[in-house]
Amino acid sequence: MLRETWWQRAIIYQIYPRSFQDSDGDGVGDLPGITRRLRYLVDLGVDALWLSPVFTSPMRDFGYDIVDYCAIDPLFGSMQDFDELLEAAHSYGLKLLLDLVPNHTSSQHPWFIESRSSRRSPKRNWYLWRDPAPDGGLPNNWLSEFGGSAWAFDEASGQYYYHAFLASQPDLNWRNPHVREAIHNVMRYWLRKGVDGFRIDVLWHLIKDDQFRDNPINPEFKEGQPPHWKVLPLYTTDRPEVHEVVAGLRKVADEFDDCLLIGEIYLPPKRLVAYYGKDLEGVHLPFNFGLLETNWHARKIAELIDEYEGALPAGSWPNWVLGNHDRPRIATRVGGAQARVAAMLLLTLRGTPTIYYGDEIGMTDAEVPAGLVCDPLGKSVPALGRDGARSPMRWDGSRFGGFSETSPWCLCPDEGPPNVTEEESNQASMLALYKRLIKARRHNPALTIGSYHPLVATGDVLLFRRSHPGCPSVMTALNLGDQPAAAILEGIRSRGRVIVSTLAADRDGEAVKDEIDLRPHEGLLIELLG
Ligand code: NOJ
Ligand code: MG
């Protein structure tokens, strides 16, 4: 095992800054708003905050289209506001991670403006420019994740440029050493300021095929699936040469103490774990999105955990994610009762967990009427719209949920739970459950850094044990179904006692031996004695 690092024991909390807390009454969340709410995050018990992009941007993709990597967008505040947030976070013992978006810039970035200005521009080769096909058409069949071709034509210079997302998000050319250097310097800029690391956007996209070969047609494509699935992204993502680029990013991180790199990568476990790098010289945590993509079924999840644990390279550290700003919220996907079971799963599995803001109070996706869609993906492929999962944090029961004094940039349901204030005074709330689970996790190293042991279970029950030398082992027993279930403890000779139930405190301290009864939608955390 590697030297133990802060992020192995840490719980990460993702903030979507537009939607966390508005402080200046413009209906958009901002940095001073986050600073104001740090106390809440400390009370919750998380260790590190990851902020989705806060850099200067025309906001076509809400900050994932950057014009200046080293400046704060005025919508979110000033550099002074950032420095204050960083200092305040550190004074509370919270780490701060920024979002690094190296795959593409905004089309308004000075680099692209220069690149586009002429075929002879010294920055022409900073992006991916191609001549039209001999018939004058597209250079190849590559598709944008936001719909349509990934090639946009530039009339003035007579060439196409590649964009994996919006046409206003041209992809950088990572084969160009100048591009590497420029982004490395962006990292150094923020690391010198004292940030603790980065979540890296679409890391598996950075290198594209140098021969620009057509992607193969996907024979299994079905109507209703995301349109870019029509082709298999063989030549556009997860290219072998990407690992050298990732190692380059890691080298920069290693110039600083304890800098954490997390990679955003949507790939099956075997290919995902390659991003730890040969000899672990890749990112520290390639985001594991298994729980975002799985059917909510005990046997499927057991399989997923086994497959992931089995694929991890020696010495690497796992991680788990339940939600993010690109996917429907967990409570919307699996329902409120199972979202509690999911919380117990996330916080007792082996690996660094990431909590998406608002999931800890059980927020569901806001319903966004067609006319009010903001998300560019939601505009081109309505079924994939992401606005619902990005609605403002609900702090209290007031008109705009305590998020802002004005109507927020994105829909915020007018009334009703969940909200933080109400949940803080309710011992049965989702927030109370999250706090108990986080406390239990902190209290016993078996849950933070202990080993993982699957236990035999059938039907809707998921069972596993965590253990660490010198600490009591802990068993997680989850009922993913809506019927009572029993779990037989095969091979476990010791007795235990319940320390958390996802349903109520009525079973606290209950003795367990040989068999456990689980109520519908119940999860139990059981400390094993002896
Ligand atoms: C992944 C980000 O999470 C998503 O929100 C964004 O639209 C794309 N990358 C493009 O940057
Ligand atoms: Mg504001």
CATH superfamily of the largest domain: Glycosidases
The largest beta-sheet arranges its strands as 11-10-9-5-2-1-13-12
Query: Residue-averaged pLDDT, rounded?
Result: 96
Q: Tell me about the biggest sheet?
A: 8 strands, parallel
Radius of gyration over all CA atoms, rounded: 24 Å
CATH class wording of the largest domain: Alpha Beta
Total count of domains: 3
Uncertain runs: none
**What ligand molecules are bound, each kind once?**
1-deoxynojirimycin, magnesium ion
What share of residues is helical?
25-40%
CATH architecture of the largest domain: Alpha-Beta Barrel
H/I helix tally: 16
SSE-based structural type: alpha/beta
Rough shape? Answer: globular
Q: At the third CATH level, what is the topology name of the largest domain?
A: TIM Barrel
Number of strands: 21
The first-to-last residue Cα distance is 27 Å
